[in-house]
Records
---
Amino acid sequence: SSPVSRTAQASQLFENFVQASTCKGTLQAFSILCRQLELDPLDHSNFYNSLKAAVSTWKVKALWTKLDKRAQQKVYSQNKACQGTRCLIIGGGPCGLRTAIELTLLGCKVVVIEKRDTFSRNNVLHLWPYTIHDLRGLGAKKFYGKFCAGSIDHISIRQLQLMLVKVSLILGVEIHVNVEFIKLLEPPEEQTDVGHGWRAEIRPSGHPVSDFEFDVVIGADGRRSTLDGFRRKEFRGKLAIAITANFVNRNTTAEAKVEEISGVAFIFNQKFFLELKEDTGIDLENIVYYKDNTHYFVMTAKKQSLLDKGVIINDYMETERLLSPDNVNQEALLSYAREAADFGTNYQLPSLDYAINHYGQPDVAMFDFTCMYASENAALIREKHGHQLLVALVGDSLLEPFWPMGTGCARGFLAAFDTAWMVKGWAKGKSPLEILAERESIYRLLPQTTPENISKNFEQYSIDPATRYPNLNASCVRPHQVSPVLFLSVESEVHPGRLLNWCQRQTHGYQGVDVTNLASSWRNGLALCALIHRQKPELIDYDSLNEEDVAGNNQLAFDVAEREFGIQPVTTGKEMAADSQPDKLLMVLYLSKFYEAFRNSPA
Ligand code: FAD
């Protein structure tokens, strides 16, 4: 074909890709585009430039200009900052994909696995001003013409995923749908044909991604991450039941006139909620309404009114049982949410027909926000047979958002940038403890971030945290304060058998001590105190110890060992007392330090 028709064809294929409106459709259009234009999507470092060269009509120029501007940020060192670093991202939600984009811009090889093959969440995310600016910079308007038109500051989850998938693919990210992460596979001791680095066990098992070896793994798999090693903090508040509802938006003039209800504004409007209760019996703590692809409502309802209106059938103490499907009258729930939506919009929406959800049902759902979770730490490092693996969490896996306040995507993106910054440091060869200490310092800011207290200079935003957090102290956690659980060298230098043997000899003859293992034998703290007493009797008055005082004995040992021998505690006395037995991995780690410090001493 002639060069002119080739150009026209390329442009049309690209347009099909840009306009694709489903996840599968997008991946299909992309694969046709690559095939027809003879582009190799696996050649991640050259893909973007090859695509740009192949599709060069004026229509796409504006998109290339935007993406070039982003890619030329100094922090990426011309796509070479992380050359050779391989990353696996678990989950193709907004935060996994946003992280993928940053990592590929840094020059990493990035593979995203997503267990589903449809983007079906109608629910709508609130965007902070910086996220709008950020997404515009990635060409959001090109992919979704209605993106944040006028004063609108929200987007449906599926539109956001769709847009981010497209940007990711353009920039050379490899995306696999219908692929589920099961667990990490440690590198084998000897190099074999299948390779020698960290890999993942996935479903389906024969999938090529199971051969992918990586240096970084990112958990972006939503509320309950499947990655091991992260302790979760629970924020238990008062009972909070949220209801989301989506109604069909026919985009009529009448619908266009109805005013939205923004998240924060309404919480304080007592009069509204009193009237709602008087007129309808519906008792809410707040309500949000966004006009998007659907008419989207999210509200927090009081339990008593749900019981009174027959939505919840029986009253139970445990929320799980309370909201279990067989205790919810679906018809009553549909009416409840519709009535609240109708009242909230002053009966101005002409027809409130439910949109259809993923399961082909009217799109209404009830969620329990009584317990919210956050991971205690944002990252850790594993080491096995000389292979280090950086493990990080982003998005809901890191910090669960309370939907009615709409913090999920905004804080999720901040964490995506912070994580990319950490990967850059990792690739530059910073020491593991420095990396973890910096990441933890930055993570401490995240739960407090608001649109008001982050930098307003969006133009300057990059993955460098200093461009975003005005009061950043990136070294508030010092490397020596990093908890040893976060730098998990799976192969302790001492063989556990030898360690146990040594501990037994050291503690032999002490009253109340009988070391038979590296976990439960240490719970009451006496063995630890004995270990110290054997080295320096003057540090601990062993005979005064009380076997029952688990917290006290352990804390004493931890404090003395830290002060006198510089051995960092791995937990606290209180936690030792709270658990039925200490974590074996932690104990091995901790006792190895004693072994290293004292094995050559005469005692
Ligand atoms: P998610 O968007 O949850 O994405 C995680 C992805 O990982 C999913 O696509 C999932 O399929 C995939 N995944 C999970 N496990 C695996 C695995 N083992 N292997 C491979 N892939 C895996 N926020 C609001 O502000 N308002 C709302 O109304 C609202 N409604 C929501 C409704 C639902 C049903 C859910 C799940 C979330 C909702 N959220 C809502 C939260 C919001 O979607 C997230 O805050 C936002 O999408 C950013 O999350 P994320 O990317 O971290 O995770």
Note: The longest strand covers residues 241-248.
---
Amino acid sequence: MAEVIDGKSVAEDVVRMVKALTAELVAKGKAKPGLAVVIVGEDPASQVYVASKSRTAKECGFHSLQHTLPAETSQEALLKLIAELNADPEINGILVQLPLPAHVDAGKIIQAIAPQKDVDGFHFINVGKLGTGELDTAFVPCTPAGSMLLIERVRGKDLSGLNAVVVGRSNIVGKPMANLLLAANCTVTIAHSRTKDLPALARTADILVAAVGRPEMIRGDWVRPGATVIDVGINRIPAPEKGEGKSRLVGDVAYAEAAKAAGAITPVPGGVGPMTIAMLMANTLASAYLAAG
Ligand code: GUN
């Protein structure tokens, strides 16, 4: 049976480290790192994520600011808020929770965030730095960055020559994940809904990353024996209408089947999920260090 990769515990290590480094920064007389989280509308999943981000920021000793705006907030009002946060010296990181309501152009909002405060790593400048291997000064999107840390925990830092298959081509996870694996000298394939014979391709993977948002799509017989399986999916399966059953969270990987073949696998929940928030804290701390000079 596969090693279960304990993302919760690795995330706690990261948060502990961020907390210690924050205390060091403050002891030197520098300002504490500031994180502003902006949420528009009432998407329940987003509300849970945002509350958790703000709570962890406080736990790290950050100046933590949350702007909760009604769903009908205009694009202009949002752009004005971002301009204010860009100019606010107490704020080192700005995160606008996605998805945004349909009447707002999410691309415009993301590109309005100052690249040096873009702790999500979604601004073109940071995307471009990641794509060209300028990893020292890029903000890397939190979920792929956290996934990389988990992969390195299992396989060590040298991933050179390993076959990596990333299932999913989103800007938030699939593409940056592929770029990180490429920068680590893996042979990388990005698979998506039009890929032919995905099971056969998946079976070539030493590292298999699932980020498609389709519950339990990746089956046990798609997993190469000994592979490292990183499940980014978080899918809520509704409770059955009759009977005692509760709703439950599952990943994009059929866990019980895949765990029989994999060398190591992340569970859902408790795998990649906690890493996303931990890496957001790490990015905000890095931004504060850069601002403090
Ligand atoms: N919505 C889902 N994941 C993310 C994320 O990593 N950042 C932001 N801003 N919104 C998200």
Note: The chain is about 40% helix and 15% strand.
---
Amino acid sequence: MNKYEIAVVPGDGIGNEVIPASIKVLDVLAVTFGFQLAYKHYDYSCKNFAKVGKMMPDDGLEKLRDCDSIFLGAVGYPGVPDHISLWGLLIPIRRAFDQYINLRPVRLLKGVDSPLKNIGNVDYMIVRENSEGEYSNIGGRFNEGTENEMVKQESIFTKKGVDRVMKYAFELAQKRNNKITSATKSNGIIHTMTYWDERFKEIGTAYPNVEKNQFHIDILCAHFVQHPEWFDVVVASNLFGDILSDLGPAVVGGIGIAAGGNINPEKIFPSMFEPVHGSAPDIAGKNIANPIACFWTGAMMLAHLGELEAAKLLMDAIETLTFSRKVLTRDLGGTATTTEVTNELINIIKNNSFIKI
Ligand code: ATP
């Protein structure tokens, strides 16, 4: 029997509701498919920062190093600035474990309303570079407090860093529909983005069957809204990928169902799976958070661990749930609680009551 060790970091706010809900679902799948999930819980969070001044203990990363995957809820707490949670927890994990791919699926599930009229079939993956690019800590302030005050923030694009994200995206395109789009802005950002385009072209020569196109980020944002059905795999730098991966899910049902993974493709280090949403302090503790984003994130984790059948079944169960529209949370137009949605999903799996869609 395959056994996986999962480091669980519920974090803050609704992370403490959607992660336990997802664990219940994962446990049902483990029994159904005959694998074992062993969880170790860690209380790394902004709440912890507010108490002891640290997001995680000094050996926090070491504790995670040997697990098979990290399952993270959300971090964020009123009064703790976002850059503390980002640079005190998420970025250290992503960088220490070389999770250089941020993968975000964008799919319009049956039964989910889009804010767009006449939307077609939307199903694409955003592959965001997750380790360098615009999110570097190189820079600083100079002549602070004087009339010559200046700030500088460097973007870093390495050949290794760009090529590996391109390769991952092309490989993914080959496994899907042989179509890839690159997000660029080489008309305005003339050094890093022209390099990005060059590497896209060069790496692309090894994938002759993949249809390639590229758009400047501004018009690409417009296409994401006006023609979301055009896309299959979209590869983007850290900043552009960050923006696109909130915009993409927004047109297919919003943040309550948006899943994400920070992937170390070589599996040398653990990958980290986290829903796109934050800690949602406005609804935390009310048992009304939509757990679907976290369920879908759990499905991505199972797929990464190699439990492909379980991952597929979980996605089918999620789509049965949304298609029937009987038990949904408020953000999807329903009235159900987090617990009710979780129980309904488990019933679908246990009773094998999938709807053929
Ligand atoms: P943080 O500071 O942790 O990023 P935030 O409130 O700025 O928190 P999100 O947590 O992403 O950002 O929430 C944005 C909005 O979306 C909030 O109104 C929140 O209630 C809503 N929201 C986020 N996640 C969910 C969810 N799973 N179910 C329902 N609503 C959600």
Note: The two ends are 32 Å apart (CA to CA).
